[in-house]
Specification:
Order of helices and strands: HHHEEEEEHEEEEH
Structural class: alpha+beta
Number of helices: 5
Oligomer: single chain
Number of strands: 9
Helix content: 10-25%
Radius of gyration: 16 Å
Length: 219
């Protein structure tokens, strides 16, 4: 299998864990190096737009036109939307497993571990191995289970990853800095999270109720 570039690996953090671990990158999808700091920063400030995942109706604001990727691996449909930034990349992914009970909980911790493990499987040295730290679980304001974590690597890479159990769908938002500008990365990540919109058809599913007897969905 062709080894993925560093930026390609970062963008795949927004896809499902099965897609990441499989090293899937659709043909024709290419990620060039970030533009110059000044020009790219101006572009980020000026072009925040709403990006919508058509199958689910879930949308989020991203600072530019997103590169879209779609895949199906081991029964998981995955769609990710990623934008390059002066500091690295920001994006979101939406996963679903057709034919499963929408009320069954997603395995948020398992998804986080698989995402990080998949990224690290392509590491070229110990210095770019990501670790997830400060893992926190809770509920969104509308009662959906969520998990957030910080991402760090010895080479200075930093990032945030946030997963939301939206019932039928699993939402993943990831922001990674590998070129400095950590404050801008923090602001962009929060802005993206605050902009998430979910179709009314799915807004009431998978709320924070006790379903401990149900098997979680792993990706």
């Amino acid at each position: 299998m062709t080894r993925l570039s560093r930026l390609q690996r970062l963008t795949l953090l927004a896809a499902s864990a099965t897609v990441i671990s499989g090293g899937v990158l659709l043909p024709g999808t290419a990620f060039a190096a970030p533009a110059s700091q000044t020009a790219a920063a101006a572009d980020v400030a000026a072009h925040w737009t709403q990006t919508t995942d058509s199958p689910s109706g879930i949308s989020i604001q991203l600072p530019g036109k997103a590169e879209a990727q779609k895949a199906n691996d081991k029964g998981v449909n995955s769609r990710s939307y990623v934008v390059q930034t002066p500091y690295g990349a920001i994006g979101f992914g939406v996963d679903d497993v057709p034919g499963t009970d929408a009320s069954a909980p997603w395995d948020l911790k398992g998804s986080l571990k698989s995402a990080v493990d998949g990224y690290n499987a392509e590491s070229r040295s110990s210095r770019d191995v990501l670790r997830s730290t400060d893992v926190k679980e809770g509920l969104t304001p509308d009662g959906h289970r969520e998990l957030s974590a910080e991402l760090t690597a010895p080479d200075g890479t930093k990032g945030h990853i946030h997963l939301i159990d939206q019932g039928k769908y699993l939402i993943t938002v990831v922001t990674v800095s590998m070129g400095g500008h950590p404050d801008q990365m923090d602001r962009d990540h929060q802005r993206a999270l605050d902009s998430i919109k979910v179709s009314d058809d799915h807004a009431g599913q998978s709320e924070g109720t006790d379903r401990s007897s149900e098997a979680p969905r792993a990706v």
